[in-house]
Amino acid sequence: MYKILRNFLFLFDAELIHEFSVKFIKIFFNIPLSKTIIRKLFVVNNSNLEKKLFGLTFKNPVGLAAGFDKNAESYREFSNFGFGFIEIGTVTPLPQPGNPKKRIFRLVEDKSLINRLGFNNKGLKVIAENLKKRRDIIIGANIGKNFFTENVDAHDDYLKCLTDLNDYVDYFAVNISSPNTKGLRDFHDKKLLKPLLEKLVNKNNDMKNSKPLLLKISPDINSQQLDAIIQLVLELKIDGVIATNTSISRDGLVSRYKEETGGLSGMKLRDKSNLIISSLRKKLGVDFPIIGVGGIMNAEDALEKIKCGADLVQLYTGFIYEGPSLIKRINNLLLDQELNKNYEK
């Protein structure tokens, strides 16, 4: 059923359909019994799926990645599809429109997307207000800098988001890896990254109710950059790593949109993301929290991420291509794996 609907929706502009779909979902869940029906269809409730990381208990390891609910407007509705957690944002202190449209491209033949949104969001004040709504799901805030903020002053933007959202979210993801904000990926250089993270860690530690601080990294970094980041993560006691953001690589693409500027997500990102996750796990040890994202298009892809070393996984492009049943399929497969493991014991 979803594939038929998807084929129709894919006839229209990607960003327009995203906005329409979110508004429709919000209206739909105002219908009596809609929440009960959808949760019955998609939610997998089983304590064997629970994951405990950095002081939080996730009902299941499947999350919605940042970029889908940029303004924290629909996290309560999306929680009904069975996600274990939702990451909102990217949030910047001041509202900004992002890059000029058209800025999202479907690469259907490659089961991928290219976006160059550019941190479009309504700003910290509006998003903080939206996060005050009651909810029963773990929420992370992906934070960044405004496009006009120079890197030398970027820490002020991140600190502002950290401080003002602290009471409303369960963890923070420091986004230094989007390719769509000029100069942002320069922070993968340890000389720039260390002072930024030091300021954030110190501020976070000083707060009465400090939250876990995670770092979201690029799939395009080389091994030397990755080693430097790992060293810094351990030195500063960063709580976790999200691997990975979108890619600027265009290797192996066949779609007519393959040369569009922006970040690539979807199936073609899967292997690059898995390599980064495997390297992180090998060098950070068995207990360090890693969230794997990039190219999860079916349940087996999610299981592969976990076998590479991810504790949790996040969906974005796969959710668009496969719909909410993907969450259920992943959780059922992981549950089967867990039950089989316990049986073998």
Task: Describe the secondary structure blueprint for this structure.
Layout: H1 2-9, H2 14-28, H3 34-42, E1 51-53, E2 56-58, E3 62-64, H4 75-78, E4 85-91, E5 104-107, E6 112-115, H5 124-130, E7 138-143, H6 154-165, E8 171-175, H7 190-206, E9 213-217, H8 223-236, E10 240-243, E11 263-266, H9 270-284, E12 290-293, H10 299-308, E13 312-315, H11 317-322, H12 325-344
Parallel strand pairs: 3-4, 3-13, 4-7, 7-8, 8-9, 9-10, 10-12, 12-13
Antiparallel strand pairs: 1-2, 5-6, 6-11
Helix pairs in contact: 6-7, 7-8, 8-9, 9-10, 10-12
Report on this structure.
By secondary structure, this protein is α/β, with parallel strands linked by helices. The protein has one domain: Aldolase class I (TIM Barrel, Alpha-Beta Barrel). 40% of the residues lie in helices and 16% in strands. Strands 3-4-7-8-9-10-12-13 form an 8-stranded parallel β-barrel, surrounded by 5 helices. Helix 8 (223-236) links the parallel strand 9 and strand 10 (240-243). Helix 7 packs parallel to helix 8. It is globular.
